[in-house]
Specification:
This protein has 10 helices and no strands. The chain is mostly helical. Helix 7 packs antiparallel against helix 8.
């Protein structure tokens, strides 16, 4: 929702932040790959110190770096369909790495799987619709999209509770469960919109 409704305001900020990467000649795909490596390393490191604060801070840096690939593509006039596809696939693997780490450390596999599924289904609902009818990439301002999911997992499920001295397995479990509910509710919201669009395309009333 944030990315869809505020794209025109957010993009110039990302493009300004991408200047150092452009200066050293990085390509959009290199930024995407670098973001994945940083997320994977952060998730792997979480398995041993098991510090939620450190995990949250590392992920904040990794996801911020990853978000600059689109800005680099726009600034360098390197926007391609292959690059967009690569970015989308890498995003899903990043989410898998994060939830696998949380599931392992907190032994919350069932909730982590439900949370991961919500993000996957949200993405797939639009992608599958695009196989049937043309769709606008930013015409789906749903409640709990990727930007909201990243902010939530960083602030609520990883770092804030521990930083405030409220460290508890129940804090992480509750935050992850709420994430899962919101992600799957958004998937259902998107599925409902897609069904209405497809019915209109069929010449039927939604």
């Amino acid at each position: 929702m944030i990315a869809g409704l505020m794209k025109s305001r957010i993009d110039p900020l990302w493009e300004q932040a991408a200047s150092p990467l452009i200066a050293i000649g990085m390509t959009p795909n290199q930024v995407t790959a670098g973001g994945f490596v940083l997320v994977a390393l952060s998730s792997g490191a979480y398995l041993y110190p098991q510090s939620s604060v450190a995990f949250g801070l590392c992920l904040a840096f990794a996801f911020t770096f990853d978000a600059l690939d689109g800005a680099v593509a726009r600034r360098r006039d390197m926007i391609t369909k292959a690059g967009g596809y690569f970015d989308a696939m890498v995003d899903r693997y990043q989410e898998l790495a994060v939830f696998a780490a949380i599931g392992w450390v907190a032994d919350l596999w069932a909730i982590a799987m439900f949370a991961f599924a919500g993000g996957i289904l949200t993405s797939y609902a639009k992608a599958r619709t695009a196989l049937e009818i043309p769709v606008e990439n930013y015409g789906w301002p749903d409640f709990f999209e990727r930007m909201e999911r990243l902010v939530f997992i960083l602030l609520a499920a990883d770092g804030v509770a521990t930083a405030m001295g409220a460290a508890s397995p129940w804090i992480l479990a509750g935050g992850l469960a709420l994430y899962a509910v919101l992600a799957n509710a958004t998937a259902l919201q998107r599925i409902s919109r897609a069904c209405a669009m497809l019915k209109r395309a069929d010449g039927k009333q939604p």
